[in-house]
């Protein structure tokens, strides 16, 4: 392990870092510190709950995730809620991407009115809290245009996230070298063809990392629609608690379910990133 | 002069970048089949001029007619024109996410609406012409600079262009790769293609050019046949420039 014993090294070995740095830098010590800290947090919350006289009933939780009956495997309420959350998030994300692309292209169009509209939209959306935007859609625009709570929540999430997505798309498009535009133009491509065949395929790898963050953000912020009682994971969690009073167990479980979903997303995208990593 | 029909006619072109006067009252005629080499110090407007020839830059006043099409910022036929006028860039500008073959076929397929089979046949043909048929399925990043530039030349040729513009095609290349690109350009010249080349490769100019143009400070200072240009240039500034670049 010691570098000084490596054959083929002729020069003087370089000085080692100080002992204390080596101690805290080693993998074993880092893992140990991590385990101790996590252990303290878990222990702290459990003894805290104990002191409150909280009655842990973890054994009652699995039935809300899944169960086996005579008909075989049954989805529990939490998984049904998760399905609704995913459906909501995916629909909102698709809408947000389309809207975001439109805003990004408007901004990049070079038309004064185009950028003005885009910037106005961005500033309007970015400076309103998500909850207020939801209330606007549900209590104000909903009755006016006659859409239900589910549509209102999809539109809210789509509009809110389209602002950030448009910035991600714009940055990705701008990151492609200017020479690519010139080359595409010089073989007679139209602006639309250039975007479709040359620019956007190359922007994907610039956009993937921030886009993942945005999807994760969207899945998490979809929980807010529980305030207008749209049936999804958080709403189901709340309903179970009002039936069973198991608030600790259920909220822990709901948090874990969100975490599992977003972690799977991140891992999946880092795989995609490696696939799209074309060196220039 | 090989041809007699003017294919590029620039009359009193002026071009500004903000307050910077990049082209000053430029008059230039290129005939069909002509090989023109434009040289001059950096910042003299050579690149700007040929970039105007396929609408990558727009002149601010004057008249530019290419292949019967009047070129200006609002001309509807600019895309038709670009299919006739090929451009080879200093930095190659190949599409890095496409293979060599796809780089060559995407223009004909998407712009000229030619079938994939036919486009690939043409592409392989031109890859043969630039001596790299075996690289068809590689990505640009896997090729050397000289090979990339030859792919870029083939990409332009695949559009069946009638005029080829070269914007310092060898300036970004390692010295040992310059000749392989120049050889391809010499062979191209022999086919009778109309070529306008911005370059400092005077050996190439002597071999290929039938007209030499010297630009300085946004103006065309000298237009003359190579024999006269290299031995007895009429302007003092051109003589000094040639002395400097031919010294070594």
Could you please describe the fold and organization of this structure?
The complex is a heterodimer of chains A (280) and B (248). Chain A is mostly helical. Helices cover 74% and strands 3% of the residues of chain A. Chain A has a two-stranded antiparallel ribbon. In chain A, a hairpin with a 2-residue loop joins strand 1 and strand 2 (72-75). In chain A, helix 8 packs antiparallel against helix 9 (191-221). The longest helix of chain A has 32 residues, at 77-108. The radius of gyration of chain A is 26 Å and the shape is flat. In chain A, 26% of the residues are buried. By secondary structure, chain B is of the alpha/beta class. Chain B has nine helices and ten strands. Chain B has helices spanning 46-52, 78-84, 100-110, 116-129, 145-158, 175-190, 202-208, 226-231, 236-246; strands at 6-17, 20-31, 35-39, 61-66, 69-70, 85-88, 163-167, 194-198, 211-216, 219-224. In chain B, the strands form two sheets. Chain B has a six-stranded mixed sheet, sandwiched between helices. A four-stranded antiparallel sheet of chain B has the order 2-1-4-5, with no helix packed on it. In chain B, helix 3 packs across helix 4 (116-129), helix 4 packs across helix 5 and helix 5 packs parallel to helix 6. Chain B is globular. Chain B starts with 5 loop residues before the first strand and ends with a helix. The interface between A and B is medium-sized, with 20 and 28 residues.
